[in-house]
Amino acid sequence: MHIYNKERHDAHLGPALPGFKGYYVLKFSEDFAGYGTWRDGAVSGKSVQEEGGSVGGYVEFPAGTTWVDVRIGSSFIDFEQAAVNLSKEIPARSSFVSVTKRVKKEWEEKLSKIDLEGASEEDRTIFYTAFFRTLQYPREFSEYGRYYSPFDDKVHQGVSYNAYSLWDTFRAEHPWLQIMAPERVDDMVTALVQMYEEGGWIPKWPNPTYTNIMIGTHADAVIADAYINGFRDYDVEKAYEAIRKDAYVPPTDDSLHRWGDREWWNGGYEARGGLSYYLKNGYVADDRTNESVARTLEFALSDYCIAQMAKALGKPVMMIPTHVEQEINAADAVGAGAGIESTTFDVSRLVEYIPSHNADSGAFRAWVQSAEELFIRHLTTLV
User: Fold this and answer.
1) What three-state secondary structure class fits 241?
2) Which of 74, 98, 122 is the endpoint of a domain?
């Protein structure tokens, strides 16, 4: 049995996707005694196809049938891929019992990475339930070397993930995955970079494509944190280009929108709504953009994360110290070739400096790495 569904949850929050469909292939362990479809409550016996908003199908089995195994393969690519997925994941002659045993074994292997000592049964249940849920998202979106991209509505070769609810997960979920599922981190970053290449932006809450849900561009923190912690098996320069765009390019017609959460799609991706005011004033204006205080804080945190990746890559920085300790640090950083110092947030100064910046200089990295030795040396001279 073949079924496809072209509807998608929250479709009104994102761009149209003519090629988006969910394809399903169903295999039954028993022969049918009857079948048909229904539409708007009207049943059609022996019908094999219906289309519409309120449709369905049914099958009947011979009298006395007590057990039917139904194997289901799904795909976002086509029926053929759904059949391939089914054959690989639930092969012929698989039973419900055998599949549940295999799945239980796989989850036990993942959850056994942590052993709780001295915990009550209730605490263990709470902990392992939460642990289980942390390993569900982001979810793998590619299908054995291919994936449908909801950012250009095409099928591509490669690996992909989706369902990044980044506003919820960037603080704890993604750092946790670096520890508990490190083998997946590079591919998760790769997927974000591919979304940028295919759609022009890294999404902040793909469902499965762009939506204006929540605020901030927290893929910035996810990518920068992964890079700083040594995950680098992806296009690093393209990843940096993508998160830098988040920091410097306001959304189209930024000044014409207040950017309310979950606004219906108006043809433009929000990214950092209110960014034009943030770049000009150093904050998001309350009389211009919704959730201005939260946006200002979120943008500042993301900018800090981008700056850490920029420094690690040898990109130029502009430091604006606000007290004497920061002035000393800024002077040392300038001397080490990291960038320039300024008394005001004037991006034009940094733009003017960039052509003369020596991106290959290792002086700044050497200075940072010498911090512990310098600190100990200065302390010992005081004794």
Assistant:
1) helix
2) 98
Cis bond before residue 208 (omega within 30° of 0): yes
Q: Any residues with CB less than 8 A from the CB of 98 and at least 6 apart, and which?
A: none
**Other Cβ atoms within 10 Å of 25 Cβ, number:** 22
Answer yes or no: are the C-beta atoms of 161 and 138 closer than 8 Å.
Answer: yes
Collapsed DSSP state (helix, strand, coil) of residue 4: strand
Among 44, 70, 98, where does a domain finish?
Answer: 98
Q: How many CB atoms lie within 10 A of CB 91?
A: 11
Query: One-letter amino acid identity for 43?
Result: V
Query: Which H or E run includes 300?
Result: helix 292-312
What span, in angstroms and rounded, lies between the C-alpha atoms of 198 and 154? 9
Say which DSSP state 68 is in.
-
pLDDT, residue 263, reads 82
Counted residue by residue, the chain has a size of 383
Of 49-53, 154-158, 229-233, 299-303, the range with the lowest mean pLDDT is: 49-53
The H or E element spanning position 73 is strand 70-75
Beta bridge partners of 5: 22
Q: Which amino acid is at 183?
A: E
d(CA 332, CA 358): 16
Encode pLDDT of 111-142 as tens digits: 999 999 999 999 999 999 999 999 999 999 99
- pTM attached to this predicted model: 0.85
Residue 165 lies in a domain: no
Q: Is there a domain that residue 89 lies in?
A: yes
- By the 8 A CB rule, do 52 and 40 touch? yes
Domain count, the chain: 2
Encoded tokens for 55: 């449709």
Q: What CA–CA distance (Å, rounded) separates 110 from 254?
A: 45
C-alpha distance from residue 214 to each of 158, 174, 189, 368 (Å): 29, 18, 20, 36
Q: Is the dihedral of CA 285, 289, 294, 298 positive or negative?
A: negative
Beta bridge mates, 58 = 36
Rounded (5°) CA angle 64-25-140:
125
Cα of first residue to Cα of last residue in the chain, in angstroms, is 82
Domain range holding 336? 314-383
Q: What is the pLDDT of residue 347?
A: 78
